[in-house]
Specification:
Number of strands: 5
Structural class: alpha/beta
Bound molecules: CO-5-methoxybenzimidazolylcobamide
Largest sheet: 5 strands, parallel
Shape: globular
Strand content: 5-15%
Low-confidence stretches: none
Helix content: 40-55%
């Protein structure tokens, strides 16, 4: 990453054409059993370090908050690289972001929405087996009586617009950039 920056390659290209494209190859190798969990974890940690270097260089800094976001990866799911990118892009877009982490239970999301007085809830899932947890989280928000005061966005590699509609989410985004753009309109 540092070499690429020294060679004046734009930060977004380093992220999209370097780190994310590289992680796609890791995914293919994982699927074909050419790479195993420890190697994938190492790739993920290295990607995290690369993203840390790029973080200050991505997106336009804006000072005014455009909404309060609570974001997390749903219960049972430990993937956080994409969710962290979404959180980072939202921060860069001027939103206040509370990043809860991974493996977050529905009741914890509800608690945090109340505590942080959030206007947008963002749920990430990378596994087909944890996608139903998004619906359970939305159900918990409805049961808590908070549904009217919060917009809900869902995303993650296996998530689609159709799935988002089916589970009653307000928005879906396929990548971090469009997630940040949509959050700005949802927050207003
Ligand atoms: Co896992 N894993 N993994 N993994 N892993 C996938 C997701 C998988 C597709 C690999 C494969 O088989 N090809 C597969 C899922 C299959 C499926 O469900 N259909 C898989 C599996 C099976 C597993 C385990 C079950 C493996 C096992 O133990 N046998 C296990 C599950 C653990 C668990 O969660 N309970 C597991 C574990 C892991 C590691 C821990 C080793 C590691 C995660 C480390 C970490 O995140 N800190 C890992 C990794 C790294 C991957 C791959 C290789 C890369 C994921 C990633 O970070 N991509 C992944 C294969 C792949 O995706 N190519 C794979 C880069 C990231 C920038 O993209 O996360 O898609 P992504 O985020 C994007 C968008 O999706 C979107 O924006 C982001 C940026 O543009 N987005 C949102 C994400 N969240 C959003 C929210 C939004 C909007 C947009 O709104 C709220």
């Amino acid at each position: 990453v540092n070499d690429a920056l020294e060679n004046s390659i734009p930060a977004t290209d380093i992220l999209n054409k370097g780190l994310i494209a590289g992680m796609d190859i890791v995914g293919e190798k994982m699927e074909n059993e050419d790479m195993f969990i420890p190697e994938v974890l190492m790739a993920a940690q290295i990607m995290g370090k690369g993203v840390d270097i790029l973080k200050p260089l991505l997106g336009d800094e804006e000072t005014s908050a455009r909404g309060k976001v609570v974001i997390g990866t749903v219960k049972g799911d430990l993937h956080d690289i994409g969710k962290n990118l979404v959180a980072m892009m939202m921060e860069s877009a001027g939103l206040v972001v509370h990043n809860l982490g991974v493996d977050i239970a529905p009741e914890e999301f509800v608690k945090q929405i109340k505590e942080k007085n959030a206007s947008i809830l963002c749920l990430s899932a990378l596994l087909t087996t944890t996608m139903p947890m998004m619906k359970q989280t939305i159900d918990a928000v409805v049961e808590s009586g908070l549904r009217d005061q919060i917009k809900i966005m869902v995303g993650g590699a296996p998530v689609t617009q159709t799935f988002a509609d089916d589970i009653g989410a307000d928005a879906f985004a396929s990548d971090a950039g469009s997630a940040a753009k949509k959050a700005k309109t949802l927050g207003n």
